[in-house]
Amino acid sequence: MTSNSSDKLKSYDLVWLLHLVGDVHQPLHSSTRVGAADLEGDNGGNNVKLAAPSSELHAFWDGLPGDSSNIADVITYGKTLTAADPLLAKKADASDWIKESFDIAQTTVYSTPIGTNDGPFTITPAYKTKAQTIAAERVELAGERLANLINDELK
Length: 155
Description:
Blueprint: H1 7-24, E1 49-52, E2 55-56, H2 57-63, H3 71-80, H4 86-89, H5 94-109, E3 121-122, H6 125-153
Parallel strand pairs: 1-3
Antiparallel strand pairs: 1-2
């Protein structure tokens, strides 16, 4: 696909594409839990408090890959990732990506030790290990899908 847009606009659009593809792969960017404690939803886990570390569930999941402000750390983290399942990586429909994240939120994010209210809850080592594994898988999938998306558009 060609564009007559300015390089400045294309750069801006690319940054947003990177951001949005990454976001839809984070389970709490694709869901909100509605219940007695949050009739309007829990704002993607932002209303769910954690006791240790003192934070919100959303921030915990956002932070699983590590601090993205240090590019050296990002590169190191990226080198530890395992290639995604090729069939999953080829999925090009963003609605599929969102549904995957939503399903993970239902089956894992809001599982024990996270209760049905707004906490505070204490993250267990088992929960953290499972969450880190899922986050790494989602980051890898997002990266491979983003590469496929860009490569398909630039043919």
